[in-house]
Amino acid sequence: MRTARFSEELTTYVLKQAKSGRRVGEVCRHIGVSEQTFYRW
Length: 41
Description:
This protein is mostly helical. 63% of the residues lie in helices and 0% in strands. It has helices spanning 8-19, 24-31, 35-40.
């Protein structure tokens, strides 16, 4: 079984940052994930 690369805490942090008004691209660059990964979450 495949394990997750990113923790749930990181996922929720990124989603909250985007919801609070920061641009998706900016948040993704800061964390080091692609925008495609963000939209998959």
